[in-house]
Design a protein that fits this description.
Elements: E1 2-3, E2 23-24, H1 45-53, H2 57-89, H3 94-142, H4 154-167, H5 175-193, H6 195-215, H7 217-242, H8 244-249, H9 253-305, H10 311-354, E3 377-381, E4 387-389, E5 394-398, H11 401-412, E6 420-424, E7 427-428, H12 432-438, E8 439-442, H13 453-456, H14 464-473, H15 477-483, H16 499-512, E9 517-521, H17 529-542, E10 547-551, H18 555-558, E11 563-566, E12 571-574
Helix pairs in contact: 1-10, 2-3, 2-5, 2-10, 3-4, 4-7, 4-10, 5-6, 5-10, 6-9, 6-10, 7-9, 7-10, 9-10, 14-16, 14-17
InterPro entries: ABC1_TM_dom (IPR011527), ABC1_TM_sf (IPR036640), ABC_transporter-like_ATP-bd (IPR003439), ABC_transporter-like_CS (IPR017871), P-loop_NTPase (IPR027417), Type_1_exporter (IPR039421)
Protein name: ABC-type multidrug transport system, ATPase and permease component
GO molecular function: ABC-type oligopeptide transporter activity; ATP binding; ATP hydrolysis activity
Amino acid sequence: MIASPGADPAELGRGPLSRWLPVFWQASPDPPAVVPFPVTERTSPVRFLLGVIFSVKRFTVPAALLAVLWQVGEALVPVVMGVAIDRALATGDGGQLVWWLIVLAGVFAMLSLAFRFAAQLAERGTEAVQHRLRATLSRAVLHGDGAGARAPDGGVVSLMTNDVTRLAAVRLTVFPVGEFAGVVFIAVSLLVIHWPLGVVVLAGAPVVVWVMGRLSGRLARDSRVYQTLLAETVGRATDLVAGYRVVKGIGAEAEASRRYRDASRQTLDGAYRNVGLLGRFLTGSASISGVFVAVVAALAGWFAVTGQLSIGGLIAAVGLTQALLPPMRMLAMNAVPAWAAAVASSGRILHALQGTPDSAPHQPAAQTPPPPAVPVVELSLGSEDAVRIEPGELLGLVADDRVAAGIAAALLDPHVDGDVQISVGGTPGRSLDAYRSTVVVAPHHATLFSGTIADNLALPASPAWLRDAALRAAACEDFIATAGGIDAEVGEMGNRLSGGQRQRLALARALATDAPVLVLHDPTTAVDSVTEQTIASRLREMRHGRSTILITSSPALLSACDRVVDLHDQDTWELDDAGGGAS
């Protein structure tokens, strides 16, 4: 894409002359459509990193070729100068001098333009990779199927920023390729000038790079530790801000501040340690490469003294030796540390993506085991006729608040004599053992336990699929994702959750019992209408084959019932098969 001359579309502040030059390969103003990076349980950090790097070959391949031209141009400068000295200055030929000056100017133009466009394409590739990585992480966070999804907290903020920036190491396939090509070109040029010099470079350069790679081992390990500390500190700060009202309410500001300061101090110490290791690595690698270049230069000087090299050859050899130092240093400074940091970030992002539950969806109702034997339930309501609940029926009871509370209390404690009596399979509710093994009553004001969401759903003999299905039926996916996954803390008595979230979690706990007979008393009074409608539609599917008594006046919940008994008018009405109308 070429921008029109005379304009400055990117607002780069180009001068009055350069603004009239065309801008090549300008990025489109519209973000590209992306496909999430594929991840499986067998994907390793190195494999994921390579997949990320090679996902933008349309940028990296031409950028790498241009980087090769740049480094070859850098190495050609001393070669052209040496040839010019031998063919022009040594002979006094003015025409040769002009010719080689033109050639030298062409070499400088080539290497300058090659570097410019290589850097531009590498940056385009980096931006494209970062965009796709953030889209992949956003999809995992925002559209994960419930409990396993990562939370969009400080940890994910760190992933989206620091780790994505480190992982989008497109330059690993651009400039190091050019630097390696530059080293090879210099070695070949020295072979042509004087073959022993070329042999020394070809044999010694791989050894030097291998030694620098060995020196980077501790740096790579510490990079992952530091990035983990940084993410934990950012996450702690985010949690502190999110829970500030609770911290303020219990007077724990000093303790919360102390914990954050400790975490921040550990991260600062990790940063100092990481920077120190990086500095020692760069110092060691620069010393090794400097000694190697000095040895090559000394050999070239000895060959010139002994008459094996001409003056032009000596200048070319010394210039090539000096040109050998920058690519070797850049290999040490760019490739090795960047690779170490990118592998560490790849592992952290991969851990976040592999933790998402997209590959393990909730088990559908068709695959659940057959329901247990469900008895007939008879409910006597004082002067009213007994209400019979058939096995597998979803019955709605409509009453005023006082009567509804009385019915729920009587079902919670059925051995007390009163107007409300219940029998299960012909056995009176006073037989507590039989009653408790069959009937579960979820009170309106349910209490959550301190601990995690998973702790509040940790019921005996409750399989994981049933827990996930209960969370889905209670429409808990959204706040579980924002709270930090199923292992997120709910606080004391669930005080980290809103009223509606606590009520939905309590409903999920009741549904996870998979009781043959379940009694629910106003389970959605603190839930918005849209979520309530979702719960109503999923509740019928979740309780298929079991008996359920809904004590409520919610139209949305009553619309999901098979039959509704209205205690106000002492009337009974049934819903049609569509669940939408009375008959």
